[in-house]
Amino acid sequence: xxxxxxxxxxxxxxxxxxxxxxxxxxxxxxxxxxxxxxxxxxxxxxxxxxxxxxxxxxxxxxxxxxxxxxxxxxxxxxxxxxxxxxxxxxxxxxxxxxxxxxxxx
Length: 105
Fold this sequence. Notes:
- The protein is mostly beta strands.
- The protein has no helices and nine strands.
- It has strands at residues 20-27, 31-38, 43-47, 53-59, 61-66, 69-74, 78-81, 87-91, 95-102.
- It is globular.
- The protein starts with 19 loop residues before the first strand and ends with a strand.
C-alpha cells in the first residue's frame, strides 16, 4: 500500500507571476490528484475530461464555466463534474486549486 500525505496543501504549490503551475500529488489506477496554482488572470481554456472530476478551491477566487453555466468560486468551494463536461477556469485572484480525476478500476 502506498500512502500519500500532505499536511499543508497550500504550501505545496507556489503561484508564479503570469503563469499556471501544476503538481501531481498522487496517481494510481483509480485516482489522479493534481494541485494547480494560477496567477490572477490566468485561464485554462475550455476542455473536457474523459472521467468524472472534483475541483476544490483552496485559495483565491475563480470563475468556472461548466457546460455553459458560469459560477463564481472561492476558497472552500467544491464542485463535482461528470465525465465529458466542457469546462474552463479563469483565476480572478491568485488561486490554488485541487483537481481530483476519478477513474474506473
